[in-house]
Specification:
The chain is an alpha/beta fold. The protein is built from 9 helices and 6 strands.
């Protein structure tokens, strides 16, 4: 939903990137430096393409596509993003070779999409899919843009995820994305969602489903507003410090900017 202006926006994913590494945010969104994604992001992208294609047609048909079609769409989505964005390989992955890494990732994408078709999809009758909502901040330089994965006919809001393993307890309670989704639902409908759900398929040997239910209150929304205002103020001030180098995200596997980042150890770059 647009307010009809050209006012810029910030998203939950951008807020998350700034929180993880302001320098990464600067290079991606201020300097416009795009770097290839890691293999996990390609798998996640493919998974979402399969789910989106199925749920979009299910709005009208009220029936899921055959699992084989969802799998084919997911693999095609993986291949399309790989062709368009390339691939960031970690040192270990480079040693194994791109062909082997990509082959395994495509197989994993197919397995996850099949699990979605069998375990997740039958539970939902979608109303909107990948729905855009502009949450207007009248006195801020940016609005907040939400792109909600799924809203169903029970007024539930769902964030569909893939993960390497089972999510820790409380993950949904802390999810900024779900806070944004809940706020977007209320902006669009004037009422809170009946349910707020993190629905995850794990990348285990046999993919499994994990559901975490959560809620949001006015205090959660105020905390989100405070966070948006703080991040926008930091960006306006040109405040882009480096992240903690011991964090999981500060590595060549997870950051496309790591190899030429001025804040990483040049002696370890080989």
């Amino acid at each position: 939903m647009s307010d009809g202006t050209d006012k810029p926006h910030i998203s939950a994913s951008q807020l998350g990137m700034y929180a993880r590494c302001p320098e990464q945010y600067r290079r991606r969104y201020m300097e416009g430096e795009r770097r290839p994604p890691g293999i996990a992001l390609l798998v996640g992208s493919g998974f979402h393409v399969g789910a989106e294609m199925n749920f979009t047609q299910k709005i009208e048909t009220h029936e899921d596509l055959p699992a084989s079609e969802i799998v084919d769409a997911a693999v095609a989505g993986f291949e399309l993003r790989l062709a368009g964005d390339g691939l960031l390989l970690s040192g270990d992955e480079a040693g194994r070779g791109q062909e082997a890494v990509v082959g395994e990732a495509k197989d994993q994408t197919a397995q996850l999409a099949y699990a979605h078709a069998k375990l997740q999809a039958p539970d939902y009758q979608p109303v909107v899919v990948e729905h855009k909502t502009r949450i207007v901040f009248p006195n801020a330089t940016h609005d907040l843009l939400a792109i909600t994965d799924l809203r169903d006919d029970q007024s539930r809001v769902v964030d569909l995820k893939t993960a390497a393993r089972k999510q820790p307890a409380g993950t949904a309670d802390k999810s900024m994305q779900l806070t944004v989704y809940a706020g977007a639902f209320q902006v669009d409908t004037g009422a809170p969602p009946t349910g707020l759900r993190l629905d995850t398929i794990t990348k285990t040997k046999t993919p499994a489903r994990q559901i975490q239910e959560t809620t949001r209150t006015a205090a959660d929304f105020q905390a989100l507003v405070n966070r948006v205002n703080a991040v926008l103020a930091a960006i306006a001030a040109g405040n882009f410090p480096p992240c903690d180098p011991s964090g999981w995200n500060c590595s060549p596997k997870w950051c496309g900017y790591w190899a030429d980042c001025p804040y990483t150890n040049s002696e370890s770059k080989g």
